[in-house]
Hints:
By secondary structure, this protein is α+β, with helices and mostly antiparallel strands. The chain is built from six helices and six strands; from the N terminus they run ββαββββααααα. The chain has two domains: 3-89, Phosphoribosyl-AMP cyclohydrolase (Ubiquitin-like (UB roll), Roll); 110-198, Orthogonal Bundle (Helix Hairpins). It has a four-stranded mixed beta sheet, covered by helices on one side. A two-stranded antiparallel sheet has the order 3-4.
Amino acid sequence: xxxxxFNLSKNSDSLLxxxxxxxxxxxxxxxxxxxKEAYDKTxxxxxxxxxxxxxQSLWIKGETxxxxxxxxxxxxxxxxxxxxxxxxxxxxxCHRGTTACFDTPEEExxxxxxxxxxQQRHCEMPVGSYTTHLFTKGVKKIAQxxxxxxxxxxxxxxxxxxDNYIYEVSDLIYHLTVLNExxxxxxxxxxxxxxxxHK
Length: 199
């Protein structure tokens, strides 16, 4: 979508409000504004670039801190007067050193963060990592661990011990996340399948 196609007539300063969301955890990171130059530069470079209203100049997010926001996808809203950017942050987004400018709970979206960490382990294969060990053993070993953790989860569910159940189901989700990565399957793939069933 071109900048000229946005409906900015009702905005007094004719700037486009932009919400940035973490593409993995889905945590809302910040709000900024773009003029045409900032929008075009964002599209061209893949780095979120804003128009700073206080400095009246272009501002590449992270140009000072190194905490860039890498664009993964961009979505205009239904009225075409606001933009949502899904981005991969290089580090904390807020100038306070926090993940986001909004103080929502850090636990939000942790399973997606776990997926991202498992993907990183699969790519880097660090020595001494249990996740690396599982990937080295291959799909049969990982699948076996998922089976073992499933059985232990069922046992704790039948016994009715809530704390033990939480412990075992956490093990199950971790090993299932590793198996998903080994199979080239993401949470997004699973969500699409569940959504299609819901429809």
